[in-house]
Structures are given as C-alpha cells and as structure tokens.
Amino acid sequence: MQTSICGKLGFSSGTAKAVLRRVTDMIELNNERNQMIVSMGDIAPVFV
Q1: What is the rounded distance in angstroms from the CA atom of residue 28 to the CA atom of residue 19?
Q2: CB 35 within 8 A of CB 17
Q3: What distance in Å separates the CA atoms of residue 30 and residue 27, rounded to the nearest whole number?
Q4: Total domains in the fold of the chain
C-alpha cells in the first residue's frame, strides 16, 4: 500500500520502505516513552 501511494506521488519504492521504517521506529519510540512515563509516574521530584 505504501509503495502504491509513494508511486502515485512520484517517489521510488526505496523511499516508501524508508518512510515505513521511520514511522515504525517513531511508533516504537513513542511506546517506550509512554511506558517510561507510566513507570516513573510514582517517583517524586527531587530538588537540590
């Protein structure tokens, strides 16, 4: 599906694969971020 969309926009199939990989990486990073926020939610801030 991504290759057909990118093809219609004039991009190569390599570009479609790169975009798909970047989006996948961003989703994984966002999931990790959300997990860290939940796990660190109970930690009280320390001001020095």
Answers
A1: 14
A2: no
A3: 5
A4: 1
Residues in CB range of 17: below 8 A, 6 or more apart: 2, 3
| Cβ pair 2, 16 in contact under 8 A | yes
| Helix extents (H) in the chain | 2-9, 13-39
Distance CA 45, CA 30 (A): 23
Residue 29 Rama label (left phi>0; alpha psi -120 to 50; beta): alpha
Any domain includes 19: yes
Please report, in tens digits, the pLDDT of each residue of the chain (48 residues total): 666 777 788 888 788 888 889 999 999 999 999 999 999 988 888 888
* Residue 47 domain-assigned (yes or no): no
